[in-house]
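Duplicate of #3305? Posting structure anyway:
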């Protein structure tokens, strides 16, 4: 019974390894073939084209820090730029004197 379980576990591990290796080979092949012309690349692009749409931005408005809603694209761009400038500005570090 113990030998049977060990043998089953060994076979299961071999099968898992082979499946993992097969999937890795398939992924590598698909990644290599997707930029080549042919059936493989057509299959890839036919599956992904639904994610690329000609559409406007899904952002319809922003709320400014003073809680005012804005739908003007220029004002939205300015609000966004101000937000990210503030977010990524160099931090001020106060070091205590030794």
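Output from current build:
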């Amino acid at each position: 019974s113990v030998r049977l379980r060990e043998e089953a576990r060994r076979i299961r591990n071999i099968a898992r390894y082979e499946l993992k290796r097969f999937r890795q080979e398939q992924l590598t092949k698909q990644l290599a073939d997707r930029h080549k012309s042919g059936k493989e690349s057509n299959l890839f692009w036919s599956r992904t084209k639904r994610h690329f749409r000609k559409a406007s931005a899904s952002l319809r408005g922003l709320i400014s820090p003073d809680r005012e809603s804005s739908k003007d694209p220029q004002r939205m761009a300015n609000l966004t730029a101000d937000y990210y400038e503030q977010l990524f500005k160099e931090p001020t570090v106060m070091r205590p004197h030794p």
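Confirmed duplicate; merging threads. The first strand starts at residue 62 and ends at 63. The chain has a mean pLDDT of 82.
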